[in-house]
Amino acid sequence: MGVTIHDVARAAGVSVASASRALSGRRKVTPEIAERVARAAAELGYQPNAVAKALRDQTTGTIGMVVPGIGNPFFTTIVEAVERELQNSGTDLLLCASQYSPQVEARRLETLLARRVDGLIISPCDIEASVPAVLDAARRVPLVQVDRYIEGGGADWVGVDDEAGLALAVEHVIAGGARSVVFAGSRLESSSARLRLSGFERTAARAGVEVLPPLLGEFTLEWGVEAGRRLLDAGRLPDAVVCANDEIAVGLVRSLRFGGARVPEDVAVVGFDDVGHATMCDPPLSTVRQPVEEMAAEAVRLLGQVKAGDPRPAQRIAIAPRLVVRQTSRPVAAGVAE
């Protein structure tokens, strides 16, 4: 048996009720009793019963988080940023991955709710298929979406301004001399995939450059390699490729260079995220930086304001991205060179 509150009370020479009040801090005791109880608890190595505390306080001091997959460097980075923010308030994070499956995502949400988490942060894997499970969870505990969101609102969201980020990338390659451009991204199953394609198409159309059909697959390095092969096989390379994330961009650069194309002399390439492999790419990848720390801080702040089943309109907070110019694109005055 571990050390109990009865053992602490006995060692401190006080009643169990006084020991409990002293340790919880919710009701006042004299400074002398508080000191005796604290000293006894430390000497005995007393650890409060988390389950009992949760039942008593109606809180577990935990937040659940569900992301599509932790193999993607962006999601690893945002999870770590959220965890750092939660540590400031002594809150623990319980992490689950949906494996890009709405069915798995629904089960993960139920698992976290069964553990009585105080709130949820989620990046929904599918803009449409994730709707029922996310809305159900939002009726039961405070919930904030990060990076991605479900169709039709219904829950607060914090993320980067995807369309503005793609505008930065397209404007950058055009300023560098590109007259034909193509978008390499993911199938349109998430809000991020749709918004980034939309931002690309809108900016390219406004600039009047030639736009090749988009290459849509997965947010993976492997898809980037395949997209590069398809461009090489087509026999005519565009002047620039704007990618929906850095994983695609790194794979695409590798594939193009293996096929004999020079980057950026023959083809400029720009990614999106600025996490993971961007600086390790050969040559280092020009990309659009997501403000991950700011997104995490805003998501945690917003979660503290949300109430389960809140009837008010959902908030959407889009944070401005930043262009980071490295060596896979032709340098121009705009952007941050690194």
Q: What order do the helices and strands come in, and which of them pair?
A:
Layout lengths: L4 H8 L3 H9 L6 H14 L5 H8 L4 E6 L5 H15 L4 E6 L4 H13 L4 E4 L8 H10 L2 E4 L9 E5 L1 H14 L4 E7 L4 H17 L2 E2 L3 E3 L3 H13 L6 E4 L2 H13 L9 E6 L12 E4 L2 H12 L12 E4 L2 E4 L10 E2 L1
Parallel strand pairs: 1-2, 1-3, 3-4, 4-5, 5-12, 6-7, 6-8, 6-9, 9-10, 10-11, 13-14
Antiparallel strand pairs: 11-13
Helix pairs in contact: 1-2, 1-3, 2-3, 5-12, 6-7, 8-9, 10-11
Molecular structure report:
Residues 3-57 form the HTH lacI-type domain. Pfam families: LacI (PF00356), Peripla_BP_3 (PF13377). The structure is a single chain. The chain folds into three domains: 5-48, lambda repressor-like DNA-binding domains (434 Repressor (Amino-terminal Domain)), CATH 1.10.260; 60-160 and 292-319, Rossmann fold (3-Layer(aba) Sandwich); 162-290 and 322-337, 3-Layer(aba) Sandwich (Rossmann fold). The protein is 43% helix and 18% strand. The protein has twelve helices and 14 strands. It has helices at 5-12, 16-24, 31-44, 50-57, 73-87, 102-114, 131-140, 162-175, 191-207, 221-233, 246-258, 292-303, and strands at 62-67, 92-97, 119-122, 143-146, 156-160, 180-186, 210-211, 215-217, 240-243, 268-273, 286-289, 316-319, 322-325, 336-337. The strands form two sheets. Strands 6, 7, 8, 9, 10, 11, 13 and 14 form an eight-stranded mixed β-sheet that branches. Strands 2-1-3-4-5-12 form a six-stranded parallel β-sheet, with helices on both faces. The termini are far apart. The model has no long low-confidence stretch (mean pLDDT 91).
